[in-house]
Amino acid sequence: RDRSPSRGLGDVYKRQVLNGLISEYSSKCYTENIEFVVDIRPGTIDDIVATDIVALFGNILSNAYEAAKQCEENSEKYIELVVKRKHETTFIKCVNSCAVPPKIIGGNFISIKKDSDRKHGYGMKSIDKIVNKYHGSHIEQFDENEFTISIMLMI
After folding, report:
1. Model pTM?
2. Residue 48, Cα to own-chain centre: how many angstroms?
């Protein structure tokens, strides 16, 4: 690995970008009474380009937030995001409460966001593009009012 000073500054910037997203969704979740748990291990995002961090985690968290927000007030509302690394593989897992089963079109999960102006499925396509860029894979699963996306990146 390249440990030059400029690389170190880039890593700091990437962590700040991700911290900004986490902070934004932490605030949104607090407002909507959604439990928000994040466990991102050190060194897990250092090899991901900053724009990919925004697109990947922004879409994951946006989808999770919109789904959890639709759960009834008296039900458990939550988002759990875990990012770990083992050797050259980064694992990203997001689990959220989801009262409304997501739509599946052509074998792909499609957004259930209420705003009709949005291009449904664009966020998942963006996630797919980034996962492919990092020679990874992803799987989505809906089971008993819970949605899970698991991503593996080979970096």
Report:
1. 0.86
2. 14
Phi first, then psi, for residue 139 (nearest 5°) are -140, 140
pLDDT value for 4: 40
Tokens of 32: 């909507």
3-state secondary structure of 110: strand
Q: Are strands 103-105 and 108-110 parallel, antiparallel or unpaired?
A: antiparallel
As a residue count, the chain comes to 155
- Run means of pLDDT, 10 residues per run, the chain, 155 residues: 51 88 97 97 92 96 95 92 96 95 73 54 88 96 94 95
Tokens representing 16 are: 């700040």
Q: Strand ranges (DSSP E) for 59-136?
A: 78-86, 89-97, 103-105, 108-110
CA gap 107, 129 in Å, rounded = 16
pLDDT of residue 111: 60
Q: Which residue has the tokens 């050259």?
A: 88
User: What phi and psi values does residue 105 have, to the nearest 5 degrees?
Assistant: -125, 125
